Amino acid sequence: MADLKQNRRNFLKGTALAGGALLAGRATGAAAAEGDPAILDIQPWAQQLGEGVDARPYGYPSPHEKHVVRRSVEWLTADPVSSVNFTPLHELDGIITPNGLCFERHHAGIAEVEPSKFRLMINGLVDKPLVFTMEDLKRYPRVNKMFFLECAANSGMEWRGSQLNGCQYTHGMIHNVMYTGVPLKYLLEEAGLKTNAKWIMPEGADASAMTRSIPVFKALDDCIVAFMMNGEALRPEQGYPARLVVPGWEGNMWVKWLRRIEVGDEPWHHREETSKYTDLMENGKARRFTWEMDAKSVITNPSPQAPIPHGKGHTILSGVAWSGRGTITHVDVTIDGGKNWHAARIDGPSLDKSMHRFYYEFDWDGKPLLLQSRAVDSTGYIQPTKDALRAVRGENSIYHNNGIQTWYVNANGEAENVEVS
Amino acid sequence: MADLKQNRRNFLKGTALAGGALLAGRATGAAAAEGDPAILDIQPWAQQLGEGVDARPYGYPSPHEKHVVRRSVEWLTADPVSSVNFTPLHELDGIITPNGLCFERHHAGIAEVEPSKFRLMINGLVDKPLVFTMEDLKRYPRVNKMFFLECAANSGMEWRGSQLNGCQYTHGMIHNVMYTGVPLKYLLEEAGLKTNAKWIMPEGADASAMTRSIPVFKALDDCIVAFMMNGEALRPEQGYPARLVVPGWEGNMWVKWLRRIEVGDEPWHHREETSKYTDLMENGKARRFTWEMDAKSVITNPSPQAPIPHGKGHTILSGVAWSGRGTITHVDVTIDGGKNWHAARIDGPSLDKSMHRFYYEFDWDGKPLLLQSRAVDSTGYIQPTKDALRAVRGENSIYHNNGIQTWYVNANGEAENVEVS
Asked: By the 8 A CB rule, do A349 and A401 touch?
């Protein structure tokens, strides 16, 4: 991990400054300010009172941020009730995804569950089948943990070459949230697992009745029945009033609007783990139970939706990295398509199975760039190239593409999704 | 800090369970479910499709969470444009305050600044006066840090005895947010501080032109010019597009809608640091420059706005603690007005000058309770009683009351703000 001070020293002493241009200096202080109508106290907001504290019981973003929204891709799915809304990664910074912008995926639209009628049943291979209300759940000890949720299909279009122009679309099936909830282990222990209990099947209360098979070892390890996200109640599109959190594993398993957990001795082989969420290989066989999300990263700025807004000189490259197996220990970036790699600076809390933010500060010479980032996680796993993935897995799958992403940036600072080999 | 496993073991083996009652068991599984119309697949949300991904480009809370809002107190201030909107601490969990619920305090209402017209000037005792646009700011290296912001007047009404029934009102002038921004140090270094530069005066662009004097040592230490909160752009009521972050110090200094930083050799003695934000003592003299927020805690659940919703038996007590001097190392709680103290369990990331979440799980016998929490920070400072504070500072001030809060809980689980001596 690169040192901020060292990086900054090199950065600020770079060629642009040495060339005499002031980084901050389109105007240099009071004298220049006289010629700039945007400076100081002539703005309307300095001359009139704004709205009072009675105006916004629950606040919302500035009208100047209207473009910062989730977006869907019409042609990607047959119907908006069974579709995807992508997180605008290129508009965010830090590691928290705000609740209003969290990637959403539904199979039967957003269930609007009345919390007083919420029930969670645990049945199957248990000593005592149990039913929990929300009030019951809130009487168990809680934990607070930040985890990324990534859809297995994130970057799925990239298997067959670059297709979508924007990291919101190529990598936006992800969010990173701090959950509050009850360790699933406590609920399973309360019900009492029978000795042949090896699998659980969480089931959603929406009209798709989403189900997945999860091995008991994971359920007892770190799964959470969560009812809060980023401090407040879960949002409806994230499973209000309670969802399953399956840290580091593919998002489809994090069953929303949770209503039942069946305990069994073998997997159920339901639709979402047979015809879907399996990785079809070149030889026609499919990888199954590929739950864990491999280490991955993407440069969010610049990117196709977020060109470099200034000319050459000091430039902040930023991105995110994550791994389903632990923390991110290094991110390397290249601006010349892999000829030279540089250590990025990871900034902010480095938490297990949580998104990490990285920066690389460089002095742009104004010539075209080929940008890539490569993450290394705490197990030593190194994010592969797309070609390396294809060599092993072919191009038939739409799942688990964690290959290195390339952006081409032209002399105007505009970026494009490309591949280099 | 108490161990979760140990606590839970004691908790789940408590008297209520020993007495034969099932914690989760108002119904115990499928058989009982037949009699309960709320269980399983007869709910409307399981029978019909919900809204699709095109419905909510920017999401919002469930309609069942309408009561989770900031609230103001009409009689507290003369006008809503110069008033306070309190965070509903009793409705939150974990350590993050969602952006829509962050405490807000204005002196001339919410300034709606157009970011393209934002300018930040640095002038005074500098080598080169500078003016920065938002685009300029975004070309400096950024950091991501989570900090609490507490108004110096938080709990101010408590100096003269318990007055407000709810932790939203007694302790809700606080929020805890992850900021992204540029260390102020880099901007001051770019301008070049003269050798006699000892103080800075940040100034807001709203109609109140808020100003405070801040010593240069703090400005160079950890202050940030922030433009993102919890991953997205600052909210208008939090200073969009840029505010000052002054970690651990009173909220009034975190100037919003930042437009100018003057550098000087002595403090300016402006209104907000003379007639306001000074602590009037018993002898008529005032403490000044009491910037740092002392360690403090409050039990958020149960509390007057959040009674115990169930009868006796397993009960989760929860609260928050923070210190302007570091992390929180211990929180002790009592349920009998101080006769016996118990170590609370601190859960979630423990970050410097950030809010900490604590829990105490106990088995309620259904008799009245006197609840208190007491925080200890990483410097060893112990949160005092209100009486200990009054003995030193009298009762004239409205600022810097970090005394221990007491809630009385009656046999129905309803709580009230009281004092015990």
From this structure: no
ipTM of the predicted structure? 0.93
Q: How many residues in total does chain B contain?
A: 421
Band (B75; pLDDT cuts 50, 70, 90)? confident
The reply to whether residue A345 touches residue B141, judged by beta carbons under 8 angstroms, is: yes
Given the candidates 3.40.190.10, 2.60.40.650, 3.60.20.30, 3.30.365.10, the CATH classification of the domain at B296-418 is 2.60.40.650
**Could you tell me what percent of chain B has a pLDDT over 90?**
87
CA distance B244 to B315: 40
Choose the weakest-confidence range: A28-42, B177-191, B394-408. A28-42
Question: Taking the domains of chain B in order of start, what are their residue ranges?
Answer: 74-287, 296-418
The predicted pLDDT at position A11 comes to 54
Number of Cβ within 10 Å of residue B368's Cβ equals 14
| Alpha carbon distance A278, A290 (integer Å) | 7
Contact assignment for B50 to A111 by CB distance below 8 Å: yes
Q: How many CB atoms lie within 10 A of CB B196?
A: 10
Instruction: Report the DSSP pairing between strands B328-334 and B369-377.
Output: antiparallel
Is residue A139 over pLDDT 80? yes
- Does the B74-287 domain belong in CATH 3.10.105.10? no
Contacts with B59 from chain A: Cβ below 8 Å: 70, 99-102, 104, 235-237
Q: Alpha-carbon distance B57 to A87, whole Å?
A: 10
A339 within 8 A of A369, measured Cβ to Cβ: no
In three-state form (DSSP H/G/I as H, E/B as E, the rest C), the secondary structure along chain B is CCCHHHHHHHHHCCHHHHCCCCCCCCECCHHHHCCCCCCHHHCHHHHCCCECCCCCCCCCCCHHHCCCCCECCHHHCCCHHHCEEECCHHHCCCCCCCHHHCCEECCCCECCCCHHHCCEEEEECECCCEEECHHHHCCCCCEEEEEEEECCCCCHHHHHCCCCCCHHHHHCCEEEEEEEEEEHHHHHHHHCECCCCCEEEEEECCCCCCECCEEHHHHHHCCEEEEEECCEECCHHHCCCCEEECCCECHHHCCCCEEEEEEECCCCCCHHHCCCCCEECCCCCEECCCCECCCEEEEEECECCECCCCCCEEEEEEEEEECCCCCEEEEEEECECCCCCEECEEECCCCCCCCEEEEEEEEECCCCEEEEEEEEECCCCECCCHHHHHHHHCCCCCCCCCCCCEEEECCCCCEEEECCC
- Which of A6-15, A128-137, B231-240 comes out lowest in average pLDDT? A6-15
pTM for the model: 0.93
Question: Pick the residue with more confidence: B7 or A64?
Answer: A64
Average pLDDT score over residue span A200-213: 96
B125 touches A: beta carbon within 8 Å: no
**Strand A130-132 to A224-229 pairing:** unpaired
Tell me how many residue pairs between chain A and chain B have CB atoms under 8 A apart.
449
**Of residues B98, B131, B316, nearest to A142 (C-beta):** B316
Q: Which of B6, B53, B206 to mutate to test the interface with A (most CBs of A within 10 A)?
A: B53
Q: In this structure, how many other beta carbons lie within 10 angstroms of the beta carbon of residue A63?
A: 9
